[in-house]
Design a protein that fits this description.
The structure holds two protein chains of two kinds. Chain A is built from nine helices and ten strands. Chain A is α/β, with parallel strands linked by helices. In chain A, the strands form two sheets. In chain A, strands 6-7-8-3-9-10 form a six-stranded mixed beta sheet, with helices on both faces. A four-stranded antiparallel beta sheet of chain A has the order 2-1-4-5, covered by helices on one side. In chain A, helix 5 (about 155-165) runs parallel beside helix 6 (about 185-200). The mean pLDDT of chain B is about 95. Classes of the chains: A alpha/beta, B mainly alpha. The interface of A and B includes residues 87, 97, 103 and 104 of A. Bound molecules: adenosine-5'-triphosphate (ATP) and magnesium ion. Adenosine-5'-triphosphate binds near residues 25, 50 and 51 of chain A. Chain B: One of its GO terms (molecular function) is transmembrane transporter activity. Chain B: It is a multi-pass membrane protein. Chain B: Keywords: Cell membrane, Membrane, Transmembrane, Transmembrane helix, Transport. Chain B: It is found in: Cell inner membrane; Cell membrane.
Amino acid sequence: MSTALQAQHVRDEIIIRMENVQKWYGSFHVLKDINLEVRTGERIVICGPSGSGKSTLIRCINHLEHAQEGRIVVDRIELGASSRNLDAIRREVGMVFQQFNLFPHLTVLQNCMLAPMKVRGTSKSEAEATARKYLERVRIPEQADKYPAQLSGGQQQRVAIARALCMNPKIMLFDEPTSALDPEMVKEVLDTMVNLAEEGMTMICVTHEMGFARQVADRIIFMDRGEIVEEGTPDTFFTNPRHERTRNFLGQILSH
Amino acid sequence: MLRQFGTNEFLFILTAARWTVLLSLIAFAGGAIGGLIVALSRVSSLKALSLTAGGFIQVFQGTPLLMQLFLVFFGATTLGFDTNPWIAAAVALTLNASAFLGEIWRGCIQAVPKGQWEAAGALGLHYPATMRYIILPQAFKIALPPTVGFLVQLIKATSLAAIIGFTEVTRAGQIINNATFRPFVVFGIVAAIYFILCWPLSHLSMRLERRFAAATTR
Ligand SMILES: Nc1ncnc2c1ncn2[C@@H]1O[C@H](COP(=O)(O)OP(=O)(O)OP(=O)(O)O)[C@@H](O)[C@H]1O
Ligand SMILES: [Mg+2]
């Protein structure tokens, strides 16, 4: 993709660079020579069949998974041997999980305040102000004092997004954020993600919501069996996929 | 010359119950501290620590409590310490409780879903903070019913301390029985005292368990 065609919100600076990344689970080759560059402000959607390594790939970015080979540079920080670099990377990268993973023993507000206070050393009052600001932004300020179990799935996922945003990350990773939701709640979460995209957040989303991909993605990446098979703008990806595997996959998910 | 079983004899047994309670509390408090250390060591990624804690648990779960009492009691003499049955019983029961509570709590810590670790890690929380603010509070809730259940076992287990000469309620019963030879009355009373101590706890444990089951199946 040439710079001339790049959307306005995408800047030149490369914020994530994966070079020749390889990962195995035992003898199972789960990531095969992954090369990926993400620019600041870019929104990327990753799709592909179950077990193709999508989650593993994005979890390597914030080092929830360890890749045995290759380089991963996030905001000019490479993990290397130092645990301080890991801290720096985790501060820059927020993550939203399919199963929300909210802390069930803490209220919504406490969920949002914990990491800023314990990781960034933010004062309680400041952490609370930030938490309320982001709960407002995901449009559930009135739920602040409830516990996660008292909320609907869609509300829980929006809390999870707010919780990640409270750390003020530069990059947000989404791992199938709407897959565990009842259909009527998918939209509220996607709307929140669209807002976030409009604000210029760098986003990598593993999702099969092709409407969302069409609407916000700068680039769609198709993975199969641990490889990046194909990538392109939504237009070329949907109308003119090059690979047989991509066409099969699109045929399957667009048919229902 | 047989003594009659009267109020004094009854009071002798009853007041000895305070030593049963005290020994149970000491062993439980010590076992709670020891158990937390054992449980944290057991789930640690440091192999040596985890294996040591595992070995500790195996030894204390795999041998009779009575042997542990003997070993501490007579072992202390052999090593030249003053053999006070009080201290020996407290030490042996504390070690035993540490092993059992450690194993119970290890299970509870590991019962907290992996996603909680991942969410905490993704937010940049380190291991100690994750343990303290995320994992242990959730493990604590899971641990409450079995821990109270274990306390009941522990109270009953203190009766073994009678054998090394510690005058708690069982030994008080033996002393009175030797003097009055009214075993049915004497040990009936001793058993009733244990029951009065344990029953409310068993009941509490069952209630907690039901409440917990209701909360998790919702
Ligand atoms: N901890 C693990 N140990 C062994 N194999 C694993 C582990 N985690 C994932 N795998 C395997 O690696 C492959 C890729 O997993 P991954 O979760 O990245 O796939 P995915 O593309 O996200 O799939 P899905 O759409 O089902 O979420 C799968 O075959 C999975 O079984
Ligand atoms: Mg996945």
